[in-house]
Amino acid sequence: MKLATRSWGEGPRTAVLVHGLMADSRTWRPVATAIADHGYRVVAVDLRGHGASPPAASYGPAELAADLLETLPAGPDLAIGHSLGSAALLLAAPALRCARAVHCDPAWLPRPRDLAALRAVKHSTWRELRAAHPRWHDDCITDEKQALAAWDPQSVTALARLPGLPVRPEVPSLVLLADPSERIPPPAATTLRRRGWQVRTVEGAGHTLHRDDPAGFLHGLRDWL
Question: pTM for the complete prediction?
Answer without folding.
Answer: 0.97
